[in-house]
Design brief:
This protein is an alpha+beta fold and 126 residues long. Helices cover 21% and strands 37% of the residues. Strands 1, 2, 3, 4, 5, 6 and 7 form a 7-stranded mixed sheet that branches. A hairpin with a 3-residue loop joins strand 4 (48-63) and strand 5. The longest helix has 11 residues, at 97-107.
């Protein structure tokens, strides 16, 4: 069981429009099939449990001018381009690829290397 905290895209998470998140590599990696506890601003007075979901996929990601995705570190990379970049950004809650790039550049710096965590629908905590 792993906790994931969010500070943006609450409505998209709850509606199911956002079913992935891009994160730094964790010390204790999340595994496919693991239950994810989804939180809104977990370490703040606004803390709210959004629900639970099952991790369906973990992929390694490298973001710079484009996106390189690998299932495992030693796999061959799949490079996304054009429409695939837009779809990737929208799946992560952004309106488009440019918005995703600007967010990662301002919050993490580019290039960014991490993981993409994907999940099934979020089940209400109530």
């Amino acid at each position: 069981m792993a906790g994931i905290s969010f500070s943006v895209f609450k409505d998209k998470i709850l509606s199911g429009a956002k079913r992935q998140t891009i994160r730094a590599v964790r010390k204790n990696p999340i595994k496919e099939g693991e239950i994810l506890y989804m939180w809104w601003k977990q370490r703040s007075p606004e803390r709210e449990k959004l629900g639970e979901a099952t991790c369906t996929s973990i992929k390694h990601v490298f973001i710079n001018n484009g996106v390189e995705i690998k299932k495992k570190e030693d796999d061959f990379a799949a490079f996304l381009s054009g429409e695939q970049l837009e779809e990737f950004a929208i799946a992560d809650g952004f309106n488009n690829w440019q918005e995703l790039v600007e967010f990662f550049e301002s919050t993490h710096g580019l290039p960014f290397e991490g993981i993409v965590i994907q999940w099934d629908s979020v089940k209400s905590p109530f």
